[in-house]
Structure formats: structure tokens, C-alpha cells
Design a protein that fits this description.
Helix content: 55-70%
Order of helices and strands: HHHEE
Number of strands: 2
Strand order of the largest sheet: 1-2
Radius of gyration: 13 Å
Shape: globular
Length: about 70
């Protein structure tokens, strides 16, 4: 479980901040972790990273290219 969370966080930082400085990459990781600890978001890293907008008619059908 911890390995999966670290991998999700690492991939999130890579995809969102691969062209940023180290400080920018750390900021992306901190935002993700802040969401994990916020009650308005899912309580694990992978769910926060994979969370996105869904269609109103199907809550399990994500809108393409509209993730966090």
C-alpha cells in the first residue's frame, strides 16, 4: 500500500511538474498531500491523484482530459 502511494505521488509530480525546478516539484507534492489530509478530498494519495470530473449522468465515468 505504501509503495503504491509513493508511486502515485511520484508519477503525479513527474507529469505535473517535470519541467519545473525542485521547489516546483516539491510544491506539487505538498498540494497533493494537503488534499489527502483535507476532508473534502479522498483520503489516500492514489485516489486524490486519479480524482477528476465525472459526467452528471454517471458518477463513475470520468470526463476525458479533465482530471485534477
Amino acid at each position: 500500500m505504501i509503495i503504491e502511494a509513493v508511486m502515485c505521488l511520484a508519477l503525479n509530480v513527474y507529469h505535473e511538474a517535470k519541467n519545473q525546478s525542485t521547489i516546483g516539484q516539491i510544491a506539487v507534492a505538498q498540494v497533493t498531500m494537503n488534499r489527502v489530509y483535507d476532508e473534502r478530498y479522498p483520503n489516500n494519495v492514489c485516489d486524490v491523484v486519479k480524482q477528476g470530473l465525472t459526467y452528471k449522468w454517471s458518477s463513475d465515468m470520468p470526463i476525458r482530459n479533465q482530471c485534477q
